[in-house]
Amino acid sequence: MCFITIIAVSLFASASDKNAAAASSSGTQSLPIYCVDTSEKKVAVTFDAAWGADDIPLILQTLKKHNAKASFFIVGEWAKLYPEQVKNIFEAGHEIGGHSYSHSLYGKLTKEQIEEDTEKCNKELSEITGITPSVMRFPSGDYSELAVKTVREAGLQPIQWSVDSLDWQGISKQEIIKRVVTKTENGSIILFHNDVKNTDEALDEVLTLLENKGYSFVGVSQLIYNEPYRIDANGKQYKADR
């Protein structure tokens, strides 16, 4: 099953108990998508890009080796610093999503601030790629019911994750591999970060082991359903007739 991971909000953490409870109590459509109900053995590998960029070439090389497509959720300020890397990601066939302009916590922003920030981030990304993102991820996984509704009104689908590699904590390569491989199931959305210790080295083995289990790797937009759909109280997305 897919469960919302509740972790204290730090640099990169899941939604707080307060945010998740508020969203759940007001209706499941106010939740982001954490994973997808599917009988197909496919998963979404995602990366949050907010810091450096030195490991992007190796990550792209590893993804190509496994014929894997991924989604990169990119902070606008990062894109401004590393436009060539954004181009490289996009030209390699991977999906570009927004991750705010300056990594602000959306659960603490007003509607107007959210609108301004997402627009600024998307403008930066679209000027580089020519494509406006259709998906986004809340910085640190922090959101409110208002944030979810506001980004959906802007035509963006908010994406969380069901498998957290915890790479941002600096855990070992083998710990990353074990966490991801044991927790992944059909429709999982896997969270990695670039420019953190051990992710680039763990990725190859993670993809190999998941391939051996029969999984394929798609961008998150190829995993999620378009309308009509429903989202349960755990953030799992279903086709409306299921």
Describe what you observe in this structure.
With 242 residues, the chain is an alpha/beta fold. It has one domain: Alpha-Beta Barrel (TIM Barrel), CATH 3.20.20. The protein is 38% helix and 16% strand. The strands form 3 sheets. Strands 2, 3, 4, 7, 8 and 9 form a 6-stranded parallel beta sheet that branches. Helix 2 links the parallel strand 2 and strand 3. Helix 2 runs parallel beside helix 8, helix 5 crosses helix 6 and helix 7 packs parallel to helix 8. The radius of gyration is 16 Å and the shape is globular. The two termini are 15 Å apart.
CATH topology term = TIM Barrel
| Silhouette | globular
- Looking at CATH, the homologous superfamily is Glycoside hydrolase/deacetylase
Radius of gyration: 16 Å
Number of domains: 1
Q: Under the CATH scheme, which class?
A: Alpha Beta
The percent range for helix content is: 25-40%
Number of strands: 11
Main sheet characteristics: 6 strands, parallel
- Quickly give the structural class: alpha/beta
Strand content: 15-25%
